[in-house]
Amino acid sequence: MSIIYGKAIANYLFQEEEKMTAQLSVAPAMVNPIGFSIENHELSARLQVVTLSEETVHRFNEQVAQWPVQALEYKPFLRYQVAHILDEITEKTLGASLNSIMTNRAQAAFLLKYDGQPDIEVGELRTEFDVKLSTAISHMIGMPNHDSMYGQYYARFTVRNVDNSDSYLRQAHRRMELHNDGTYVDERTDFVLMQKLAEENMQGGESLILHLDDWEELDKFYNHPMAKQDIVWGAPKSKNVDKKVVHPVFFEEDKQGLPHMLFIDQFAEPQNMAQGRYLFEMGESLEADPNYLAIPLPPGAMLVVQNHCWVHGRDKFVSHPDLMRELLRQRGHFTQ
Ligand SMILES: [Fe+2]
Fold first, then answer.
1. Under a CB-based contact definition with an 8 Å cutoff, are residues 183 and 265 in contact?
2. Is residue 63 part of a domain?
């Protein structure tokens, strides 16, 4: 009898231990970084600056040199392999740290850059390295969605002094208004990764980001009768997305009950005066808000934000006939 009783207790303890392990694995990991550092950005404690050490960059470059970016495009599992390689080099502390940042609403954004140079000349080979690095980062936190504009899991595009496209994405001389990505697609867009690949003759053009909880008029718009009303969203031709989608601006709340938002001025299609006025005033309020951060990015560096609690945009550039900037973006959903 005592043996059976003992087994029951052992079973009970085992089950409790399993429950505790499960709880621990969903709690944000507090880990000591190995092969990189983390600190608050000088402009805001929300934004975390993650800097990979020279040795980490060197080892990563060596281990992924066997695959050109084309191999990553053709074989989706290689994208996870390069993420795994980088995580192993940091003894799994990088993935844990990035996921901890992204699931913490108070932060939910990081700027990732690297020390030193990966023994590659500036040019297409260096760009290949940078694409592999951002692929590793995006696959540590989730999975990029297919980018219909570019036809890959990422998009590369160039901003020049003149542009004749049909949206503000590539237009240099105006500020790109604060917005969320993924407003006009069906799939979730939990994160946006923006990486600078190259630039020449650039002045200005900082990435602009604003956390919803820093937006002074959030309550006014979140508690507005229109906040939960469906709006139609469509996209211009260049985006290669034919279908329109319907959702409210404040489409859901997070685990703490705080708002998640999906808004972009250019692609909302208001169907009546009330919707038009609500969207107009929201755009005006976001553009007038003083609490945004203007973040300069060195080539190779990337800014990653949780797309539903940060809005992003881009400041205008100073005109120059030979102005050039090449950017990469990945937009995806969390898988952790
Ligand atoms: Fe965007």
1. no
2. yes
Q: According to the model, what pLDDT value does residue 2 have?
A: 38
Q: In this structure, are residues 305 and 138 in contact, taking their beta carbons and an 8 Å threshold?
A: no
Calculate how far, in angstroms, residue 223's C-alpha sits from the geometric centre of ligand 1.
Answer: 25
Could you tell me the distance, in angstroms and rounded to a whole number, from the CA of residue 313 to the centre of ligand 1? Answer: 6
- Rounded to the nearest integer, the mean pLDDT of the chain is 89
Residue 13 lies in a domain: no
As for how many domains the chain has, the answer is: 1
Q: Where are the alpha helices (DSSP H) in the chain?
A: 2-26, 54-64, 69-74, 76-89, 93-102, 124-141, 218-222, 273-288
User: Would you say residue 3 lies in a domain?
Assistant: no
Residue 20 reports pLDDT greater than 60: no
pLDDT band at 19 (very low <50, low <70, confident <90, very high): very low
Between the CA of 183 and the centroid of ligand 1 the distance, in Å, is 10
- 139-152 pLDDT, tens digit per residue, is 999 999 999 889 99
By the CB criterion, residues less than 5 angstroms from ion ligand 1 are 181
Taking the centre of ligand 1 as the mean of its atom positions, its distance from the CA of residue 89, in whole angstroms, is: 31
Q: How many CA atoms, within 13 angstroms, populate the side-chain half-sphere of residue 188?
A: 12
Does the residue 224 lie in any domain?
yes
CATH code, domain with 147:
3.60.130.10
- Residue 13 has what pLDDT? 43
Using alpha carbons, list the distances in angstroms from residue 194 to 31, 52, 126, 308: 25, 17, 17, 15
The yes-or-no verdict on residue 313 having pLDDT over 70 is yes
> Residue 207 is part of which domain span?
30-334
| Per-residue model confidence as pLDDT tens digits over 59-68 | 999 999 999 9
**How many CB atoms are located within 10 Å of the residue 143 CB?**
17
Q: Which of 219, 247, 253, 212 is nearest to 233 (CA)?
A: 247
